[in-house]
Amino acid sequence: MLSVRKVFSILDLFSVERPVWTADEIIAALSCSRPQGYRYIGSLCDAGFLVRFSSAYRLGVRAVELDFIVRESDPLLRAGLPVLKQVQQQSGCDVLLISMVGDRVITVHHERGTDPMTVTYGRGRSMPLFRGAGSKVILASLPAAKQKQLFEKYYAAEPCRILGRDWEAVRASLKQIRRSGFAISRGELDSANVGLSVPITYNLPVSYASIVVVLSSVRYQTTDQDVIVQMARSAAEQISNAIGDGDAGHH
Fold first, then answer.
1. Domains in the chain, ordered, with CATH?
2. pTM for the whole structure
3. Are 93 and 113 in contact (CB under 8 A)?
C-alpha cells in the first residue's frame, strides 16, 4: 500500500527555484527504494499532479485546477478579495492576504499598489516564519506552547533572528506584538519595503491569517502609520465578519 505522506512529500520538492526533478533525484530525496519511488511518481502522474518532461518531471495541470477551485471556494479569499481591493484603492499600497497552513505561512493573494516595487513573497510563496510583519502577527496570536514548538523546530535555521536570540527574547517580542495588535517589518523581506500587518481573527482568540500593507521605505517616511494600521484593522474586521456570516448561513 502506498504511503500517502511519502507520495505527497514529493510535491514539496518542487519550487520556483527547482521546478524539474529526475526520478533518481526524487528517489534519493525520499530515501526509498527504486520500485517504491517509481510507484510514488507513477501515482502522482496518474492523478495529474506530475507530468513527464523530457527525462524528468514537473508539476502537472491538476495543480492549476485545484488553484482555480481554491480561488472560487476558499472562504478567506471570497471574503478578502473585495476588502483588499478597497484597501489598495484607499492607500495606493500593495496589500497581501496571508494564511498559516500547518507550519507554513503563505501569501494567498497579492493586490498590487500604484508604486512600482518588488514584493518577493507574492501569491503562492511560503514566507519565513519569524520574519515579515504578516508572519509575526500570526505567530503572536498563537498559544505559547505552539509558539515554542515552532521556535524549537525552525528558529535555529533563521538567519536574521529579528525577534531575539533565544526563546525568552522571542516570546517577549511576540507578547509585545500581541499587545499592540499589529506588527511592523522594515526591510525584513525586501530591503526597500516596510510592511504593516494586523491579524484576521474570525472573531476567535487565535489568528491563522493576516492582512499586510506594503509600502516603500521612502513612502513610509511621509505616511501616517496609525492611519494605515487603522485601515488594515477595519479591513480585517470586515473579513472576519463576512466569514462569520458565511458560516452562519451554512448552519
1. 4-64 (1.10.10.10), 74-249 (3.30.450.40)
2. 0.80
3. yes
